[in-house]
Amino acid sequence: MHVSVQMTAASSAVRPLRLVRAVLASTGWYSTVPVLALAVVLTVAFPDGRISHFGPLELNPQLRVLVAVPLLMAVAVGICQGVAPTPVVFRNGRVLAVRAACYALTLVVSWGIVLLGSRLGTGLPLAACLRNLLLLSGICAAVGALAGPVYVFVPAVVALAAAMVTPGESSEWAPWSMSFRETASTEQLVVAAVVAVVGLALAVGDPRSPGYLRRARR
């Protein structure tokens, strides 16, 4: 009897984990793992690293690696629901809840990577990292929802290119200031949060497709 109770408790604990794994697999969330893993590698390898040149272009001021890593995390947010292995045929409240949970999970994991960088590096500006993560995640999520996951990388590339040609701009709304400046104003954080809310709401609603394939009942 004692052994039976232990086995029942163990199986009941495993069941939710299997459910979570099945949900993540069915929604395509595992496509984010390589991107998030690359973000972890860069965070661990270059906690205090700086980029002085981008090809032939000299950066002045230099770009801190961990302030740029949220670009990768934003791409992960954008693709976390865009590579589902099943066709999409219906929509209901549970579908929207699962989509929202997957986006939230990606953001939480991303913020955890930022906090890891703050532990490994010296004086990492968390406010600037939060601004970058929210702003670019909202844009990438919206692009993924409207154009598809193939184009999610485009906002990150455009943000990087725009920042490269405006290094050290004094205006807080210049591309460099909004993406790579190591300080973040309250106004920038508010704008980034609004963009994130709008972009993620659009991504959760997913206007390009109505839901996930309903599993046939036996």
Radius of gyration: 20 Å
Structural class: mainly alpha
Q: Secondary-structure element order, as H and E?
A: HHEEHHHHHHH
Calculate the mean pLDDT score and round it: 81
Gross geometry:
globular
Strand content: 5-15%
Cα(first) to Cα(last) distance is 33 Å
Q: Characterize the main sheet.
A: 2 strands, antiparallel
Number of helices: 9
Q: Provide the low-confidence segments as ranges.
A: 1-11, 213-218
Helix content: 55-70%
Strand order of the largest sheet: 1-2
Number of strands: 2
Task: Please give a quick description of this structure.
With 218 residues, this protein is mainly α. The chain has helices at 2-27, 33-45, 65-68, 70-79, 93-120, 126-147, 153-164, 175-179, 186-205; strands at residues 50-54, 57-64. Helix 5 packs antiparallel against helix 9 (186-205).
